[in-house]
Amino acid sequence: MKYMKKRRGKKKRSFEEDPMSGVANLFDVAMVFAVALLIALVSSYHIQELLDPTRDITIVKNPGQPDMQVIVKEGKEIKTLNVTEEMSEVEIAGTVGTIYRTPDGGMVYVPEGG
Q1: Measured in whole angstroms, how far is the alpha carbon of residue 4 from the centre of its chain?
Q2: Which residues, other chains included, contact 66 with Cβ-Cβ below 8 Å and sequence gap of 6+?
Q3: Measured distance CA(84)–CA(70) in Å, rounded
Q4: Are 70 and 58 in contact (CB under 8 A)?
Q5: Phi and psi, residue 47, nearest 5°
Q6: Cα 71 from Cα 81, distance rounded (Å)
Q7: pLDDT, tens only, 24-75
């Protein structure tokens, strides 16, 4: 008979209670965290201009290196140009003229030989 006594203090669990109800909103929290992380990455790399369709942008990655890339964005179209040794080396034939800066900020071009 001692086993048949009612224990006061313990609640009976109803079958309608869902044990996973406490973690149901974790997906929503994870989605908010993922969106916040994407916004933080975009703002930390200063690439908001790439998302604006009205701006034209040119980005040079690894300037002066053999694996240099030029990324050009015109409107919604983005092109990647891989620069090779042949593209970056040009022989200079001579000078064409001289450009002088004036005190007020303007520039004057004087052709050579005349």
Answers
A1: 68
A2: 85
A3: 11
A4: yes
A5: -115, 25
A6: 6
A7: 778 889 999 999 999 898 888 777 777 777 888 888 888 878 788 888 888 8
